Amino acid sequence: MRVWLREAAAAGATLVGLCTGSFALARAGLLQGRRCCVNWFHLDDFRLAFADVEPVADRIFVVDGRRITCGGGTAALDVAAWIVDRHLGPAAAQKALRVLLADRARKAQDAQPHQHLVGPAADPRVRRAVLLMEQNLAEPLALDELAGRLALSGRHLERLFIRHLGVTPARHYLDARLQYAALLLETTNKRVTEVAMDAGFVNLAHFATRFRARFGVAPSGYRKARAPAAPADQSSSSSPVR
Predict the structure, then answer these.
(1) Does residue 151 sit in helix, strand or coil?
(2) Same domain for 161 and 215
(3) Of 28, 118, 179, 199, which is most buried by a Cβ count within 10 Å?
């Protein structure tokens, strides 16, 4: 497969990677120095495997020269519609969508849908900002860097958040990190210090203070309160009915 992909690339073919197809292209060395779309669910795995590729998980698909990648699922339809539109025109693309019982195709820059730690917003720029936050919890992005990735000013991004979510980006980011920490405390056996680091807190005391302010209890108390109840001891039960 890798040999065939490399031969196709050498011949000038445009290669399309759907879902984990981005992994196949990267393993073949065909995404070096490029940007590619990765499903948000696979983002961490992709980053660990391919340091020479820039993964993007806050949009539906990415076109980088002769490499087209998408997050998979219904995004494959959006990629197909884009290709038909580019080569045959919008009328042909719309007809193909109708045949597939689809109302419209999403744009490449539309945000990938997934279950957010904190409720999503209607504005696509805010949705993408939320995605970027949730993909960078352990090492939080500075507001200016976050806004820059969206081609916005920090002040503009702040106005959008206040208008659509009722809070500043900094407040939303902090809440997402605390929600993530709470999820880790409930579902893993990680030490509180590890949970704090995974949620982007380098200072344990600061984490504990913020967590208590948000949930009304210390991290250790939160975990204890949500620990599953131990099964009842059946050793002293009465003898079974014969």
Answers:
(1) coil
(2) yes
(3) 199
Range of the domain at 180: 124-225
232 lies in some domain:
no
pLDDT digits (tens, 9 = 90+) for 171-208: 999 999 999 999 889 878 889 999 999 999 999 999 99
Q: How far apart are CA 71 and CA 135, in angstroms?
A: 15
Measured distance CA(40)–CA(45) in Å, rounded: 10
Q: Where are the alpha helices (DSSP H) in the chain?
A: 2-10, 21-27, 43-49, 75-88, 90-99, 124-135, 143-149, 154-165, 169-187, 192-198, 204-215, 219-225
Q: Domain total for the chain?
A: 2
Q: How far is CA 100 from the centre of its chain?
A: 27
Question: Is 210 a domain residue?
Answer: yes
